[in-house]
Structure prediction request, 417 residues.
Amino acid sequence: MTDVRWKFDTAVIHGAQAPGEWKSATLAPIYQTASHRFDTAEELSDVFAGKKAGFIYQRLRNPTNQVLEKRLSQLTGGLDAVVTGSGMAAINNAVLTICQAGDEIVSGNSLFMSTFLLFQNVHRKLGITVKLVESADLAAWKAAVTPKTKLLFVETIGNPKMDVPDIRGLADLAHANRAPLIVDNTLATPYLFLPLAHGADILVYSTTKYLNGHGAATGGAVIDAGRFDWPEDKYPDFALFKERKGNLAYIDKVWREIHINFGTTQSPFQTYLTLIGMDTLALRMERHMRNAIHVAEFLDRHPKVKWVNFPGLAKSPSHATAKAQFGGKGYGALLTFGLETEKACFDFIRNVKLIYHLANLGDCKSLVIHPWSSQYISFTEESRRENGITPDLLRISVGIEAIEDILEDFDQALRKV
Ligand SMILES: *Cc1c(COP(=O)(O)O)cnc(C)c1O
Prediction:
C-alpha cells in the first residue's frame, strides 16, 4: 500500500496506488460501467446497508473515482473526499451539506465568478444569507461573523483580485465562533499550500485547473480533514451522521445527502485524465510559478503596461501574507495587468500568437482573457467593479512554455497595442 512517508512529489504520482491491484496496470483503469453486478441478494443488501464496502451504481461511487478521492485526501492531509463532475458541483455540495434556509454564511468577496453567482443568486434564493467581506481584511471578517454563521468560505488566492487572506487567522476566527472554514485552494494547488495544515476544515477544488493541468477535463473535489466536531445545538442534522460515521460524518453527509441526490458524479474517464495530469503536478507548478514571476516582472517594467497585480510582486498588498503563508515557495501562476484602454486589451488579444485566448486557467499552455467583456458581460458595471474587474484588465494564466517564448509573445503583442 501507499507509503505515508513519501514526499509530495512522489505521493502525487504513486499515492493510493497499490502494487498488484488493477491486474498490475500502472494507471487506474476506467471503470466505465453504470452499475456493478452481485451474486446474491444478501451481498447487495449488505452493501446498501453499509455493512460491506462495494460499488453499486456509478452515480453513487466508482472505483476509478475512488482512486482520485484517496490520492487527493492523502496529498492534502484530508481524511476522505468526494470527487464531483466540476469544481462548481464541489462548492455547491460543500455548502448545501451544512446550510439550509435561514442559515448565514460569511465569504471572502474575492470569488471565482460562478461561485459569486451561486452564492448571490442560487443560495440566496434557497434562503441562505451570504455576507461578503474583503477577503484579506481579518477585521472585516470579525465584524461580519455572528453566532449564527454556519461556515466561512474563502479562496487561498482570490480570482481575479489576486489577494491572499491569512488562512490561520480565519480558521481561528471560525473556530472561536464554532463554525468550519472552507477553503477553495484551486489556484494555490496542494503543491504550493495545504490549508488543512493551517487550520482549515474543508477544502474544495476545481480539478479542471492545475490538478488536471492540460485543460482536458472538468472536475472537482470536496475534501474533509475530519476534525470539525459539528456541535449538536448548532448543527442538529449532523447528529445521525456523527453517530454512524464519527469523524467521517461530514464527508458521509456530502456523499449520502447531496452528491448522490443531486447527481454530481464525475465520469470515470474525466477522473482518469485528471489522474494522469496529476502525475506531473509538482514539476508543472514549479515551472508555472517561476514563469509567472518572470512575466509579472516583465510586465511591471513595460512602458505600455499601467499596472500589474500579482502577489509575487513586492508591491502587492498581499505579498507579505503570501510570502509567509506559502513559505517563499511561489505565488501561484495567475496574474492580471492593465493596459490604457479596453481597445488596447482587444488589440493585445488579437495579436498574441503563442498565448491562447480562452476561458480557463491552470492549463500548461499560457492563456489570456478580458473578463470585463466575456465572463462578466452579464454583470452590471457596478457589480463588475465590485468583483475587481475593470475594462482595462487582462487576466493571464502563465503556462509552462519556455519563458523566452512567452515574453517574446507579450513583447510583440504589446508593440501592436
Ligand atoms: C474554475 C474555478 C472554479 C469552478 O470550477 P469548475 O471546474 O469550472 O466548475 C471554482 N473556483 C475556482 C477558484 C476556479 O478557478
About this structure: Residues 8-30+61-278 form a domain with the Aspartate Aminotransferase; domain 2 fold (CATH 3.40.640.10).
